[in-house]
């Protein structure tokens, strides 16, 4: 065994890096926001006596999310969007953090990852249905 | 209403099991939705990816706050998992349901066998390298306190593969990433696990967005399942230290193998 307990605990116990702390709060906040929206949607779904097996309405990018309120999908689609967007927002905030520190290689890595996400969206739209 | 509650409970069970055994819920959600609720396999994979993001984001927040996850290493490797996930997400729509079911059955058998031979867990403290000079590519130092990251190329290839598997089968990909980081790159197991959790969000969202925009994620199915998994994973992490994991592991292997048989039947076009 090498390294001892401090190795296995990583940086635990040290003062958190400000960027790590911001990202931690972002991930936690994003998760709770998403879980809150999804919970409201599930409650609305159950209260309406509807079965998930009926199938929900398709995503309509042309109308604002609140247009479907108070139907279940008015909470569920925004909740799902927050779930999927939270990791990408975490990378975007990291990019800003690295640019401020002038860490160019890490900034390039972060912007490349965001580029891949953007490419995913573009290809999904282009090959849709 | 009953089906909604059953889906919630099924998600919770997947979350508890996944959390207790360190697997994430994805490996159970896909069989639950396809074999239990008769959903399309691709739709189940899309929903599973959403669940995986929810649990990994929650855990990654805690790991970052406690400084267990290596942010720089995670960001460097997640570029490759994102590329893999993009490729896997597109390939998933080309493959037939039978092929996907066959791949999933192979994954289940692999996990079951791995659980009977937990080599990674036993090697927890083994390969940590605290010394020796390793040239950091592009001046990128990804090492942490007490360990030096090596073989970034191996990590990149492993991450690429993890991304493809994640997008095809709806899992987080930790099954690939943790051994690659720990055994292949000299990262302590605890840090590798935490960093993998951080990466899972981007890995899964790169392909989840493809499933979402192509209409493969049903909000009425994803909502109850994701909430169930979140609650189950939270509960599992709180009781993990009180549970006899040896018995649970054996039970889980039996469940995995039974599910693998059902998936093979599906792959062969036999009704399940």
Shape of chain A: flat
Largest sheet of chain B: none
**SS summary, helix count of chain B:** 11
Indicate the structural class of chain B: mainly alpha
Q: How far from one another are the termini of chain B?
A: 24 Å
Q: How helix-rich are the residues of chain B, as a percent range?
A: over 70%
What is the H-and-E element order of chain B?
A: HHHHHHHHHHH
| Largest interface (C-beta under 8 Å) | A-B, 77 and 79 residues
**What is the distance, rounded to the nearest whole angstrom, between the alpha carbons of the first and last residues of chain A?**
54 Å
Mean pLDDT of chain B: 84
Strand content of chain B: under 5%
How confident overall, as mean pLDDT of chain A?
A: 85
Major sheet of chain A, described briefly? none
Unreliable parts of chain B: 120-127
Number of domains of chain A: 1
Number of helices of chain A: 4
Number of strands of chain A: 0
Describe this structure in words.
The complex is a heterodimer of chains A (129) and B (272). With 129 residues, chain A is an all-alpha fold. Chain A has helices spanning 4-8, 18-47, 72-100, 104-126. In chain A, helix 2 runs antiparallel to helix 3 and helix 3 (72-100) runs antiparallel to helix 4. The termini of chain A are far apart. Mean pLDDT of chain A is 85; it is low at 1-10. With 272 residues, chain B is an all-alpha fold. Chain B has one domain (2-129, 141-267). Chain B has eleven helices and no strands. Chain B starts with a helix and ends in a 5-residue tail after the last helix. Residues 120-127 of chain B have low confidence and may be disordered. Chains A and B meet through helix 1, helix 2, helix 3 and helix 4 of A and helix 1, helix 3, helix 4, helix 9 and helix 10 of B.
């Amino acid at each position: 065994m090498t390294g001892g307990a401090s190795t296995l605990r990583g940086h635990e116990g040290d003062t958190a890096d400000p960027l790590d702390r911001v990202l931690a709060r972002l991930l936690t906040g994003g998760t709770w926001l998403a879980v809150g929206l999804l919970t409201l949607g599930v409650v609305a779904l159950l209260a309406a006596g509807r079965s998930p097996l009926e199938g929900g309405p398709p995503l309509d990018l042309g109308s604002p999310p609140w247009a479907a309120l108070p139907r279940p999908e008015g909470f569920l689609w925004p909740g799902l969007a927050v779930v999927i967007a939270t990791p990408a927002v975490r990378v975007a905030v990291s990019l800003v953090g690295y640019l401020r520190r002038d860490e160019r290689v890490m900034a390039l890595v972060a912007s490349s990852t965001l580029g891949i996400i953007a490419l995913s969206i573009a290809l999904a739209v282009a090959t849709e249905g | 209403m009953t089906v909604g509650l059953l889906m919630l409970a099924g998600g919770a069970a997947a979350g508890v099991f996944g959390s207790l055994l360190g697997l994430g819920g994805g490996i159970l959600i896909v069989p639950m939705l396809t074999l239990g609720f008769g959903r399309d396999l691709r739709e189940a994979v899309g929903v599973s990816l959403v669940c995986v993001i929810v649990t990994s984001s929650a855990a990654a927040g805690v790991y970052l706050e406690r400084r267990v996850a290596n942010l720089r290493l995670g960001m460097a490797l997640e570029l490759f998992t994102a590329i893999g996930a993009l490729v896997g997400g597109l390939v998933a729509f080309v493959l037939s349901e039978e092929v996907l079911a066959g791949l999933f059955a192979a994954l289940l058998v692999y996990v079951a066998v791995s659980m009977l031979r937990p080599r990674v867990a036993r090697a927890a403290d083994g390969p940590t390298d605290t010394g020796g000079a390793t040239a950091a590519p592009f001046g990128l130092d990804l090492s942490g306190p007490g360990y030096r990251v090596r073989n970034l190329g191996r990590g990149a290839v492993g991450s690429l593969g993890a991304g493809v598997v994640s997008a095809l089968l709806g899992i987080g990909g930790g099954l690939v990433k943790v051994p690659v980081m720990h055994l292949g790159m000299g990262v302590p197991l605890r840090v590798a696990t935490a960093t993998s959790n951080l990466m899972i969000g981007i890995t899964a969202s790169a392909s989840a967005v493809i499933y979402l925009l192509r209409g493969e994620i049903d909000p009425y199915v994803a909502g109850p399942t994701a909430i169930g998994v979140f609650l189950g994973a939270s509960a599992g992490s709180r009781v993990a230290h009180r549970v006899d994991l040896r018995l649970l592991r054996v039970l889980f292997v039996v469940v995995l193998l039974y599910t693998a048989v059902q998936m093979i039947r599906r792959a062969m076009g036999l009704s399940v």
